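Two proteins were folded this term; both appear here.
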Amino acid sequence: MKYRRLKIPGGVYFFTVALRDRQSNYLIEYIALLTKAMKDVRETMPYKTIALVVLPDHLHTMWQLPDEDDNYSARWMRIKKQFTRRLIREGVQIRKNHLGECDLWQRRFWEHALRNEKDYENHANYIHYNPVKHRYVRRVRDWPYSTFHRYVREGVYPLNWCDSGLYGADLMVGEIVR
């Protein structure tokens, strides 16, 4: 089956990328290796990270690609490969599939081209609230693997954002369903 993806040069996209084993905690256990893989790919294939949350088995992020560039798939392929290779170098045993390929990541990822300012805001909120949604923490500020802390420093969110269970003035948690 050939997947059709919307590609907009210079576009802003929301992504969900997941490990195959949804019980794994590799993404936070080896957060330094993931960070290094993302940084190394960004140096050769630039993108701007607008928002990011890394959970044990999946991550959500918003990227803006450079003008005249719409190839986010190549970036994700490289990030996945680099992270996997770094895990193997660390001695982590990675299961192989029936083709002999490393079976760490789900084959595909979810992407969504952001349409407007409200879509942008909703997805940034979804990203930052996700650790609470999954019950890893009770307050957004308590999850260390998130750009939420940058948003607080920049004055986008107050430190106690979502402590009441709402994000934004009119958006209830769960409005964006994946």
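Next, the second protein.
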Amino acid sequence: MALLEVEGLVSGYRAGTVLHGVDLELDERGAIGILGRNGVGKSTLVLTLMGLVRPRAGSIRLDGAQLAGRRTDAIARHGMCVVPQGRRVFGSLTVSEHLDLAAAGSAVGTWDRERVLELFPRLAQRAGAAAAQLSGGEQQMLAIARALLRNPRVLLLDEPTEGLAPAVVRQIEQVVTEVRSSGVAVLLVEQDLHVAFATTDELRIMDKGQIVHRCTTDELRRDRPTAKRYLGVG
């Protein structure tokens, strides 16, 4: 049995339906990249998995427990956390305050404040700075650190390299690799194919609210027609 099992997931906003029956499985310690053009439903999938958008139909099971329709805090306590698109840090809180809040009541696991700051030494240097004063890369580090302190079993990353300098992108790649090596399963939404290739084993391509292609990372590297058809690259 997969760690995360999604079956027939349907969701959307008000009268509009965005996801039209998404099926997805993520194994323990696995890493899947979710690819697709803008507007195909990738972020809606992440938001629905975390309970921020309520599913209209379908099933979301984490380690056998049904999470569809449950509140976001309950989903997080069960072991799924998100690094949202745009980082969503609190501008007036310091780095240290973000980490304190994330660690409060978190699950017992390998990720604690010391290990997070080893992974992101820049955050230790900026501990007293307000999040609004951080660079985009530093804010992304903080958003990832905040999620890791919850000791998730599944980490959802929504466009973690968006708008970042190439050097920071490479650092984020290394971070995802380290997170995987700690035993955390990763679901990565990403526009940059190079990042997806560097950090995941399996890929799922979305179009019009559905997963339309499933393959390994290596298979898509060699399949230029599919990359061109669905992603406009190749």
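The chain has ten helices and ten strands. The mean pLDDT is 93. These notes refer to the second protein only.
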